Amino acid sequence: MDDTTLTGFADILVKSRFFTDVSQAAQAMVKIKLGQSLGIDPVTAMMGIYLVKGRLSLSANLMARTIKSSGKYDYRIREHTSTKCRLEIFERNLLTNKMESAGFCEYTMDEAKAAGLAVGDNWKKHPKNMLFARCITNAAKWFCPDAFGGSPVYLPDEIPGSGLVVDGETLEVV
After folding, report:
1. How is residue 170 annotated by DSSP?
2. What share of the chain is helix, strand, coil (3-state, %, to 5)?
3. What are phi and psi of 101, to 5 degrees?
4. What's phi and psi for 95, nearest 5 deg?
5. What is the spatial distance between Cα 33 and Cα 6, in angstroms, rounded to a whole number?
6. Which of 92, 93, 94, 97 is nearest to 74 (CA)?
7. pTM for this structure?
8. Which of 46, 55, 69, 96 is most enclosed, with most CB atoms within 10 A?
C-alpha cells in the first residue's frame, strides 16, 4: 500500500475503535510504519505494537516473531516453568551460514518479584507467559538488537508510569 492508501486505512482502523491506544490516524500510521520496517502487516502492527505514554512498544509475540523471521537469529525454549524461562539464542554464522549458539537468556519469578513485576493477579494466572515475555524481551535487547533496527525494545509495562501489567500478551490496566 502506498502512504495515501495507508493513511485512509489508518483512519478506518482508528474509527473502528478496536485499538484503544490510538485516537488519531497519525498515531496509527506510526504504528503501521514501525511494523512495516519490521516486516509486519498493518493490522498485526496495530494489534501488537502499543503506544504507551508517547512511546512505542512491541508485544512479546511480535518480538519472538521478529527474531525468528529475521533469518539471522532464532531461539529455542530450553526450560519453561511457572518459576523460570530459559531460552537459547542462535545466530547465523555469516562464513558458514550455520546457526550457532550465541548464548542463553533466563528470567525467573524471583527476578520478577524483585523488579516489582509480580503485582495484581495476572502473574498468578499466567506466570509462564509473563516469564517468557520478560525473557524474550531481554533476548531481543542482548542478542538481537539489529533485528529491531537498533530501536529500543520494551514491553508496555517497562515504560514508567504506564499502569500496565503484561503476562505475555494480555495487557491489564491496574
Report:
1. -
2. 45, 25, 30
3. -65, 130
4. -80, -40
5. 9
6. 92
7. 0.79
8. 46
